Amino acid sequence: MIRLFSFILFTLTLIYQSLQAATIIVISNKDNNDIGTLRTVLTNAGDGDTINFNLSGDLAARTIRLNAHLPIIDKNLTINGANIGGKEVIINGNNTHPGFFVKGGNVTILNLTLDDCISKGGPGGSATYGGGGGMGAGGGVFVNNVATVTLTNITFTECGANGGTGGNGVREGAAGGGGGLGGAGSVSGILSRGGGGGGLYANADGKNGGGTEGGDGQTSIPVTPAQNGGAFGGGGGTNINFAGSAAGVGGFAGGGGGAIAIKGGDGGTGGGGGSSDILGGNGGKFYDNFGGGKGGIATQGPSEEPRVGGGGGAGVGGAVFVREGGDLTFDSDIENNQSVKFGRGGTGKSNGANGSADGPGIYIMQNTIITLSTSGTKRISAKI
Fold this sequence. Notes:
Blueprint: H1 2-19, E1 23-26, H2 38-44, E2 49-53, E3 63-65, E4 77-80, E5 90-92, E6 100-115, E7 118-120, E8 136-137, E9 141-157, E10 160-162, E11 285-287, E12 290-291, E13 315-316, E14 320-322, E15 327-334, E16 339-341, E17 357-358, E18 362-364, E19 369-372
Parallel strand pairs: 1-2, 2-4, 3-5, 4-6, 5-6, 6-9, 7-10, 8-13, 9-14, 9-15, 10-16, 13-17, 14-18, 15-19
Antiparallel strand pairs: 11-12
């Protein structure tokens, strides 16, 4: 009986331990799907896990150079760069890719350097009526509206956020989709459905619209490629008899779709407006006139091809962006070399307006929770 009880207790202990959070170690500075890389570890980490690093050697051996966007974080997680190998670990975005995108969960990131990480808004689709550019936000870290993030002993160097360019007015298509937070708006054929809106990050470019009207962009953060009508960026509106159709409105950070007639789609927050014959879509605003650029309006004569550019997207939060509703505790350093750039309005016979740019250090939307820790001396040298 005692032996049976001991066996049951041992078995229950093993089951309990298997349900506990694990510590996973990054042992390679390569950015691929091999075992032990940061990308693989982030993909496979469970809720509540801790990620540590064991990278030895010179600076190059301790630098992870990103070849693509890292997996989105949507669980409770701790990422600790206190390297078992001794010296600092650097994540370098190659002036092309952002650092960490925290969609949800309670996430702590500490003891890392984020260098040259860039968030780029997707370009609007170029067509007869160009779509609006998407917003670029949070080059180093993006904190979503349902995320709680703590940043401790992080050093941000040369991170940035660039708004997406508005789609140009060209003859190759009827109505371009709006750009997303990384994904590009697609272009429709001259007699086809409107282009879809761009989605989030890599492999998230828009697909063609599902009907005569472009679909609105999603308001939540999508993690899959854009579907019919657009995810994030609004789809372009058109139909085959050129009677005119409404363009899709961009979701958060997405540009509005272009439209053959009536009105171009409005941009989501920070996204550029789509272009149109009669009324260009409004750029998505944070406040007053700050945000995405307004879409262009056709100015051609009765027998001319219109060619109208979409509005450019906003660039905000070079190092860190906190979306409305997000929660950030900040105890880190930001060097005075972060950057934000507005998205250029699309060109054509009528140009779209440029987007805006602000907050090279940290951009904080309203109704967020921000805690600045006082442990030690920290330096924020870039504008908040």
